[in-house]
């Protein structure tokens, strides 16, 4: 399977191949195309108040964080301390990787979902009947750090960027733990976050001549706890809120953060992983960079004991090793919360 970028940029492409045509509607009235616009205000978290604010400011921010997790499963983080220059260098590094020749990128094609470096197209071409308008690079960066050798600057920049992003994620998770009424260090210790799994996912969504007929990525939730995303100055992310799709217009120098399936599991369903998707456009190429943060791969993740009450709040999910969950999700098609549904307890 070749890469989409080369094909999309190969000449005067005016129509897309039939194997990229994706129908997003499941009914006659196309309800799932309705997008809530300006009336929806996406929550914003001031990281500096969580990290170094007064006790009152921190408590208020933790409440805001809990509300964002419960009502949206999505929020933007500002004043996070990761230099804008580093973020821009990282995005340029991703662009440089995607600009490599097809032969150079094939060196990193990978064969298995747990290969530490893997690039390709769509999501999982081995099982997909319809392809998505996207190429990707996936790199395991913690607890063992990996990096492609090309472009040469990628390793050093990504090492620093991933370290800084991991620090932000862990501080957010401490706040989320407290918002659930758990100890601040609950996730740190129970999920062994010192050895937590962090994966870098770079995406390129080339200009598309018929964007209304295809998708960058379909509706899905993420594995893990939190995903922190940045992008070039091209939007395309949509999150589902109250049954409608909301366009995400990123604030300058912010992280876009969504909750993953393992936040839903740990919280015993109080906080939901957010469904999201990516749309494409015919004006500009979008590049995004997601850092997904999860437990230690060998951890069996279960609902927190303090959030389980056999009479009123029985366990909503059965325990599963995080590594097995990733293999399950990455080996199948992306389809809403189909992976989470496999560990859901039906009472």
UniProtKB/TrEMBL annotation:
Coiled-coil residue windows: none
Record's keyword terms, sorted: Iron, Metal-binding, Oxidoreductase
InterPro entries in the record: DIOX_N (IPR026992), IPNS-like_FE2OG_OXY (IPR044861), IPNS-like_sf (IPR027443), Oxoglu/Fe-dep_dioxygenase_dom (IPR005123), Plant_2OG-oxidoreductases (IPR050295)
Gene3D superfamilies: B-lactam Antibiotic, Isopenicillin N Synthase, Chain
A Pfam cross-reference name: 2OG-FeII_Oxy
Domain Fe2OG dioxygenase, chain residue ranges per copy: 195-295
GO molecular function, one term: metal ion binding
Family statement drawn from the similarity comment of this UniProt entry: Belongs to the iron/ascorbate-dependent oxidoreductase family.
PANTHER family according to UniProt: OXOGLUTARATE/IRON-DEPENDENT DIOXYGENASE
The protein, known as: Protein DMR6-LIKE OXYGENASE 2-like isoform X1
Provenance organism: Nelumbo nucifera
Gene that produces this protein: LOC104608624
